[in-house]
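go over this record:
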Amino acid sequence: MSTARRQDARPAGFDFTLHMRRLCEDMTDRLPELRHIDLSRVAISFSQARNNTRHGVFASLTPMRFADGRTHTVRRGRKWGVQRLQAASGREMLYILNFCLPRFLDLPFGEKLTTVVHELWHISPQFNGDVRRYEGRCYAHSASGDHDEQASRLTRKWLAMDPPGSLYDFLHRNFRQLYELHGGIHGRRIPSPKLFPLD
């Protein structure tokens, strides 16, 4: 197949997940606090919001392991595992970073960046497929608000490093503006992994 035909086969419009990956790669390269993240084992996806309201989930990080990186958990006396996700290379993914559109793109610019860092900061410092855990019942988000404060601080730190504007210029536009500018928005869509009984 010729190069021209391969290019014609690509979906028309803006590849959202490709641009989000490039942005995340720069953040994890520049910020020492995020260098434990191996993005080759983080799948980046988007999902369609059921409505256009500003309230709801903007992004989420799905861990593909349980506490301490275990491949199973026990609930109500039963042992459970989770569906595995592999890249085309066969390498297993440890996390799914998902953005909810159009809701995420309709946030103010600064909130978009902070949301990205917020989700990356959820990744365990051990990078073992589990989330960063805090003490207390609210183990995924610290009850004191430290998680949000850290995400805001790291976002400011990253911007102060003067990263190329080409990495994040698209975030200055909302969903409709980006859609109209490029004639569409596309990218990778990954269903939420399901739990299954092991016994």
